[in-house]
Amino acid sequence: MKKNLLISLKMTLVMIILCAVLYPLLIAGIGKATPGGGKGKTVSVNEKVVGYENIGQKFTDDKYFQGRPSAVDYNAAGSAGSNKGPSNPDYLQIVKDRIDTFLVHNPGVKKEEIPADLVTASGSGLDPHITSASAYIQVKRVAAIRNLSEEKVKVLVDQQIEKMILGPSVVNVLKLNIALDNLK
């Protein structure tokens, strides 16, 4: 009995050191070796950090492209989805409200033309990307507000498209809006 208890205590101590000390140090070391040193890859304009490459941001001004909605209001400390299923009446109302808002800000777009990623939040609530279709559907509004030709804005969207191995091509909304602000 004493022998088994001593072995159990030794194994517990070894596992605590392994799982609570060595493993976190290993993961932190790997994080330090990544771009951004484990703190995320920042995006800067004029040497000022304006956001993170892999965390979505809220753009509400019509002169900017808008990203996916966020169930956590883009709070990276609490990434999460809404946890409401597609048949939940509250969720359906939220999506309907997002569709109505989008249509108000994008006259001429029909309800059935709106890509799903513009009215539904991602699983993390922090997705920085939209599909290229979601970017193209906003071109008319952005071009009109900024007094630019639609063709010029479409070319800018084309330049920002990131091809994916699996799934649709995507556009990083923050990078697209920065490029838009840099257009002359």
Structure description:
This protein is 43% helix and 9% strand. The chain is mainly alpha-helical. It has two domains: 1-37; 42-181, no CATH class. The strands form two sheets. A three-stranded antiparallel β-sheet has the order 3-5-4. It has a two-stranded antiparallel sheet with strand order 1-2. A hairpin with a 7-residue loop joins β4 and β5 (170-172). The longest helix is centred in the N-terminal third of the chain and has 31 residues, at 2-32.
Query: By helix and strand content, what is the structural category?
Result: mainly alpha
Strand arrangement, major sheet: 3-5-4
Helix segment tally: 6
When the domains are counted, the total is: 2
Shape: elongated
Radius of gyration: 23 Å
State the helical fraction: 40-55%
Mean pLDDT: 90
Query: Which percent band covers the strand fraction?
Result: 5-15%
Distance between the termini: 80 Å
What is the number of E strands? Answer: 5
| H and E string | HEEHEHHHEEH
Largest sheet: 3 strands, antiparallel
Low-confidence stretches: none
